[in-house]
Design brief:
elongated, 11 helices, 5-stranded mixed beta sheet, 12 strands, Helix Hairpins, Heat Shock Protein 90
């Protein structure tokens, strides 16, 4: 019986060692004194590996934590150790806890101090018949640096959008106003009137683009705060539809509303939600032919209110559905009326507004069977 138990333990140890050595993450097994008992091949081959003693050493000593190097102290004895995430996690793992954490640490590699970002798991483990802690570490420095670069680029983009949009708004408004005044002139020849109409339409599109830029800028910089109040959602829906009635009538498209419950109180920013609904209904109208229908359906499910806008247009390909809410994305299928040129920002803005309300937004569609845009809002 004892031989069988020893054989089982040996097999278990060999299996664990095999698993450890075939993992790309850096792995450490530390004992009750937080001294290293085992590392894996990934660490042996990493840049952190130094030609020095590893086993029976402390974790911070082995990776050359800057605190141990600068203070010339062992890991566990420096002024920083009491607040070290690695150390505290290992201690808690030895008490039976499993933790997933992130840590930023300055360490020395080839004599140079570098800042590293880590993601790691600390968990209890039985190794060599003793209770120890297993530390599984992934170096996510490159990912974090890319994330920071993207954040900086996004901030630059937002500053650019805010500045340019603000500076363009007044001159475009002046062009639009002058074009309108000229269009009222009775002595214009037909060709001249055509030029003036084109100027007005173009300036109108440019003004919509500027307004969309400003919306994106305000939302992403947090300057567009939600003004949430309890609202009768059915009334909000009806108000949003009013803004699209003229366009629907002009195209001979039927706008139909279905609401399961008449009493729907929601905490929302009324104007922002009207903006989202108007945008979705307006898009549906752009892709609808004469005699078709756009259905707006509202219902309650799992503590949320779902709003759907269903059209009978050409539909959206699966690849495009995955990108439809990206800024400036425009699909291959063109609107029925090219007069309503899209800026490519409406759906991106709608997504940001819904997510700011704690909701979700999406689309489902089959080719040639129309598209259904939907969003959910929490009831509380």
């Amino acid at each position: 019986m004892e031989d069988t138990r020893m054989e089982t333990l040996q097999e278990s140890k060999e299996f664990l060692n095999s698993v450890i050595n075939h993992v790309n993450s850096l792995i450490f097994v530390v004992d009750q004194n937080l001294k290293i008992k085992r590392v894996n091949n990934a660490f042996e081959m990493s840049a952190y590996r130094k030609e020095k003693k590893i086993y029976e050493e402390y974790f911070g000593n082995v990776i050359d934590c800057s605190n141990t190097v600068i203070q010339k102290q062992d890991c566990g004895s420096t002024a920083h150790c009491e607040i070290c995430v690695f150390r505290q996690s290992m201690l808690r793992a030895l008490q039976g806890e499993t933790l997933k954490e992130r840590a930023t640490r300055k360490i020395y590699i080839d004599g140079k101090k570098v800042k590293k970002h880590f993601q790691f798991t600390a968990k209890p483990i039985e190794y060599m018949d003793e209770e120890m802690a297993l530390l599984i570490i992934d170096d996510i420095t490159e990912m974090e640096e890319q994330k920071q670069k993207l954040k900086q680029l996004n901030e630059i983009k937002n500053r650019f959008l805010g500045t340019v949009s603000h500076d363009l708004k007044n001159p475009i408004g002046a062009i639009q106003s002058l074009a309108y005044v000229l269009s009222e002139e009775e002595n214009l020849k037909e060709e001249q009137r055509g030029y003036v109409d084109e100027i007005y339409k173009t300036s109108e599109y440019m003004m919509r683009l500027v307004e969309d830029f400003l919306d994106i800028y305000k939302i992403e910089t947090g300057k567009d705060k939600l003004c949430q109040e309890m609202q009768d959602y059915a009334e909000v829906i009806k108000e949003a539809l009013k803004y699209n009635q003229f366009a629907a009538k002009e195209k001979s498209v039927n706008l139909r509303l279905e609401i399961q419950e008449r009493s729907l109180e929601l905490l929302i920013d009324r104007n922002k939600i009207i903006q989202v609904i108007s945008n979705l209904v307006g898009n549906a109208l752009k892709f609808s032919h004469e005699g078709q229908e756009v259905l707006l359906r509202v219902y309650k499910i799992d503590g949320e209110i779902v709003t759907e806008v269903q059209d009978q247009g050409p539909g959206i390909d699966l690849e495009e559905q995955e990108r439809i809410f990206e800024e400036f994305f425009k699909g291959e299928v063109q609107p029925v009326s090219m007069e309503n040129t899209s800026t490519g920002l409406g759906l991106a803005i709608s997504k940001k507004i819904i997510e700011a309300h704690g909701g979700t937004i999406g689309v489902r569609s089959e080719s040639s069977k129309g598209a259904c845009f939907f969003f959910s809002l929490p009831r509380e």
